[in-house]
Design brief:
167 residues, alpha+beta, Aminopeptidase, 8-stranded mixed β-sheet, 4 helices, 8 strands, 28% helix
């Protein structure tokens, strides 16, 4: 059974391990320098820089999402940026990624952010297909969350996607 919970400082080592797993999957392990101490300080200190949630399958940690607030000068409002969403390979195709993104979208909605954004590496077809799936449009309280793409030339990591909250 799937459950999603907020990460706590006690999860610092777990988050660090899964971030390293994610980096290896994306062929970016050479760029990872994060430690459990960094996670504890920056995620759970007096001025948190990010938030995280942990997905568990029958009590076993199987994925996570890391997200943080950004400000849009055009909108004059804050949004949430989904920095990482990762599901361990043995647990993919069980709806865990969808549940994680819906969970973070629910936080964005309930906290009145105007959108949620994320980026996808342009070679990661599995992730691009995941985000581009037409069934992945969400509804909350009668409002629609829709996705839109920003041209990849503006984002060196690949396409930037947003969920825009509209009434």
């Amino acid at each position: 059974m799937l459950s999603i919970r907020p990460a706590t400082v006690e999860d610092a080592a777990l988050l660090t391990a899964m971030i390293h797993e994610f980096a290896a999957f994306e062929h970016l392990e050479h760029e990872v320098g994060i430690t459990a101490e960094d996670i504890a300080r920056d995620g759970f200190g007096p001025r948190p820089k990010f938030r995280a949630v942990i997905a568990q399958w029958n009590g076993e940690p199987v994925g996570y999402a890391v997200f943080f607030e950004f400000y849009s000068s055009f909108q004059g409002r804050a949004g949430l940026f989904l920095d990482d969403i990762f599901v361990r390979p043995a647990f993919r195709k069980h709806g865990i990624g969808t549940a994680l993104i819906k969970h973070v979208a629910g936080i964005a909605w309930s906290e009145k952010y105007f959108c949620m954004r994320w980026e996808v590496l342009d070679w990661n077809k599995q992730a691009i297909d995941f985000y581009n799936n037409p069934a992945r449009h969400f509804s909350k309280n009668g409002s629609r969350l829709s996705s839109s793409a920003t041209p990849s030339r503006q984002r060196p990591r690949g396409p930037c996607k947003s969920l825009l909250f509209t009434a």
